[in-house]
């Protein structure tokens, strides 16, 4: 077991998990750059590649609880080592496989499972276990900011890599980079001594306890909305702008860059504030502010500057829900099964993401406008703001509990 | 002093990455990718 007798240094855990998250989130965020070269080389329609990415996202969510269980049971380090190899294998698969069905299924399974083993859900457990309760929310904020930084950093890096090395070799380089950086970082993630907070609670009991707790269901529902909103906006905003007459691609690209940049600050400060204020009110505030920002954006006359302001505002509110949601889950249920419970919550996020991107396209095709999806996004924002208010953050009472 | 240096370093790094988003070839590549998705 990758377990130590004394608590590992929080700084080491944050740096090591930060590098892992930067790479895991970042590499995946830039995969869309391969759409054009792969489709052209193999003579595929763009649907093949898009389906592979969609499957990756869905399986990332579906594998999340199982990867989390493994992290909580055998240690995060082992799961990240497995995830790094799966990630590298997935990238090599994308580089070498030219049969469409094999490409979609293989890359979907390999990279989906790799993300489940290396991204937020998997890492949240060890971060939560290593941080003292008063610093836990801040530590989750650092982790979320590292993932956000990865998304911001890796897009230009991957685009440049394809330009210099060609699309196939770019996959090889990325696979090597992942193994080179993730493996030594994973080995630094020693688990702290086991916490005696669950009195022999089994995985099944922990799942039943969580799903029987009203606040957990409310958090799942809120996270579903988070996924729906961010992925709908991230995927469909450029198309919406073109539809509304903003044809200059610079505006859409700059908007995505601003979302990425402000997301780093939003994630960090949300975690920091979560250590000082009730997290449920912060979450309600984030969903409420998203609703206001979307409403003002839709009502105001559209110009490049309103797009930039909207992008900056949405960036601040983008992944800021992650440290707060994980913080509440850790606060209620403790940290013993935190990776697994975060995996369940994240699955709900991914289902929302899938619906957001799909419904955006579906309703646009049916109605010729995004009006209906924007209305759903606004309504869901109000719903998420309201349902976070009655969340109870108090630790669940268990016999012989030492948290 | 050390904290100010770290803040400056981070700000410089973020500004450099942001500048990478403004390169014409990047904008064109990303724009093509976005257009291909719809």
Q: At the fourth CATH level, what is the homologous superfamily of the largest domain in chain A?
A: MFS general substrate transporter like domains
- Percent helix of chain A, as a range, is over 70%
Distance N terminus to C terminus of chain B? 50 Å
Count of DSSP helices of chain B? 2
Query: What CATH architecture of the largest domain in chain A do you see?
Result: Up-down Bundle
Characterise the protein shown here:
Chain A has helices spanning 10-29, 35-42, 46-74, 76-96, 100-118, 120-130, 136-165, 167-187, 203-211, 214-243, 249-274, 279-299, 304-316, 321-333, 338-367, 371-388. Chain A is globular, with a radius of gyration of 20 Å. Chain A has 403 residues and is mainly α. The model of chain A has no long low-confidence stretch (mean pLDDT 89). The two termini of chain A are 22 Å apart. Chain A has two domains: 10-187, MFS general substrate transporter like domains (Growth Hormone, Chain: A, Up-down Bundle); 203-388, MFS general substrate transporter like domains (Growth Hormone, Chain: A), CATH 1.20.1250.20. Chain B has 38 residues and is an all-alpha fold. Chain B has one domain (2-36). Chain B contains two helices and no strands. Chain B has helices spanning 2-21, 24-36. Chain B is rod-shaped and about 45 Å long. At the A-B interface, α7, α10 and α11 of A face α1 and α2 of B.
Short overview:
The complex is a heterodimer of chains A (403) and B (38). Chain A is an all-alpha fold.
